[in-house]
């Protein structure tokens, strides 16, 4: 196969495996201005208790340190937009754990590549120091929008991103240089905690961070801002006009389980550890843990003076 044929084959295989879009970037060190932006965000402490974001920066800024001999970064995005919402849980988390689903498919992609050309590669999905949205932008998938989401023109931002770092040279896509946010500020206006502002993003104030990553006591009266969502927050995603192009996912693993869809307010308030384990086996919600999920549910109830 020529380089061009192999590149086209990889992209068509990615679509066959269920990815909505696939692009390829040349593996090279991340430029200084991107590193400086990242470093100043960390120095300002806006990452809160996510200390892992401070570690492995040598690898984060140089993909060749993650995979020796890496020449190309194949970036693929898979749609998670829900057909039906589960009360209380962010859209992305109502199906199976995306880390595993995406990585499994990237392994299949690697297998397909190896069936036509010997290659060494390693898949990643939100589990290693990879600047995922940056590489998605470099691979021409879309732009990093004001709400921090990778947004794909004509498709919206309800996508998981996965990367396959590989030691073969391919044809590279043109990076997305334009933002299609324009003068819009809807995500900023709709952010309930001002985590998003003209100054950028402060994870410490973000409901997604507070309900999932943060292990301590929740700030006072935060339940009022959470409204009824006790795992994550979709406000800045729902506010974005580009998501009017979202279509419900066709990936079976990302469709919400019937037992989750049927959960009523009282069921959540009386959730036992046993039920939690059954509901969230093989789910990203496991990251939060039972006690923390109940902490969130209680915050909504006590701060709103009523049920969920
Ligand atoms: S997820 Fe919610 S709290 Fe976090 S930035 Fe978006 S709107 Fe704000
Ligand atoms: S809501 Fe508007 S500003 Fe925010 S990400 Fe979407 S288009 Fe950009």
Strand order of the largest sheet: 1-2-6-3
Number of helices: 13
Strand content: 5-15%
* Unreliable residue runs: none
Q: Which percent bin holds the helix content?
A: 25-40%
The secondary-structure class comes to: alpha+beta
What's the total count of β strands? 8
Encode the helix/strand succession as letters: HEHHEHEHEEEHEEHHHHHHH
Spatial extent as radius of gyration: 20 Å
**Global outline:** globular
Structure overview:
There is one protein chain. The protein is of the alpha+beta class. It folds into 2 domains: 3-166, no CATH class; 186-244 and 257-304, no CATH class. Helix content is 35%, strand content 11%. It is built from 13 helices and 8 strands. The protein has helices at residues 3-16, 32-43, 57-60, 98-116, 132-138, 186-190, 207-213, 222-226, 235-238, 258-261, 265-269, 273-280, 290-304; strands at residues 21-26, 72-79, 121-124, 143-144, 150-151, 159-166, 196-197, 200-201. The strands form 3 sheets. The chain has a 4-stranded antiparallel β-sheet, with helices on both faces. It has a two-stranded antiparallel ribbon with strand order 4-5. Helix 1 runs antiparallel to helix 4. The chain is globular and about 65 Å long. The mean pLDDT is 95. One iron/sulfur cluster binds at residues 145-147, 181, 184-187, 239-242.
Secondary structure layout:
Blueprint: H1 3-16, E1 21-26, H2 32-43, H3 57-60, E2 72-79, H4 98-116, E3 121-124, H5 132-138, E4 143-144, E5 150-151, E6 159-166, H6 186-190, E7 196-197, E8 200-201, H7 207-213, H8 222-226, H9 235-238, H10 258-261, H11 265-269, H12 273-280, H13 290-304
Antiparallel strand pairs: 1-2, 2-6, 3-6, 4-5, 7-8
Helix pairs in contact: 1-4
């Amino acid at each position: 196969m020529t380089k061009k044929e192999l590149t086209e084959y990889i992209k068509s295989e990615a679509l066959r495996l269920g990815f909505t879009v696939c692009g390829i970037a040349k593996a090279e060190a991340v430029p200084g201005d991107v590193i400086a932006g990242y470093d100043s965000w960390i120095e300002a402490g806006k990452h809160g208790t996510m200390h892992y974001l401070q570690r492995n920066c040598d690898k984060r800024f140089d993909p060749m340190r993650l995979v020796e001999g890496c020449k190309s970064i194949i970036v693929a995005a898979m749609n998670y937009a829900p057909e039906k919402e589960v009360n209380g849980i962010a859209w992305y988390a109502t199906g199976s754990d995306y880390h595993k689903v995406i990585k499994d498919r990237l392994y299949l992609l690697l297998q397909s590549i190896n069936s036509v050309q010997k290659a060494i590669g390693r898949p990643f999905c939100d589990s290693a120091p990879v600047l995922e949205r940056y590489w998605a932008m470099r691979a021409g998938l879309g732009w990093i929008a004001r709400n921090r989401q990778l947004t794909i023109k004509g498709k919206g931002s309800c996508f998981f991103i996965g990367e396959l770092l590989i030691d073969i040279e391919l044809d590279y896509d043109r990076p997305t240089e334009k933002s299609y946010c324009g003068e819009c500020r809807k995500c900023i206006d709709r952010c309930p905690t001002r985590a998003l502002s003209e100054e950028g993003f402060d994870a410490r104030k973000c409901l997604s961070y507070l309900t999932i990553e943060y292990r301590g006591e929740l700030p006072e009266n935060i339940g009022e801002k959470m409204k009824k969502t006790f795992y994550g927050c979709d406000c800045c995603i729902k506010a974005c006009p580009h998501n009017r192009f979202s279509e419900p996912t066709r990936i079976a693993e990302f469709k919400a389980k019937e037992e989750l869809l049927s959960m009523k307010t009282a069921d959540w308030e009386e959730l036992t550890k046993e039920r939690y384990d059954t509901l969230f086996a093989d789910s990203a919600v496991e990251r939060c843990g039972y006690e923390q999920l109940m902490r969130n549910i209680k915050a909504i109830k006590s701060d709103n003076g009523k049920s969920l």
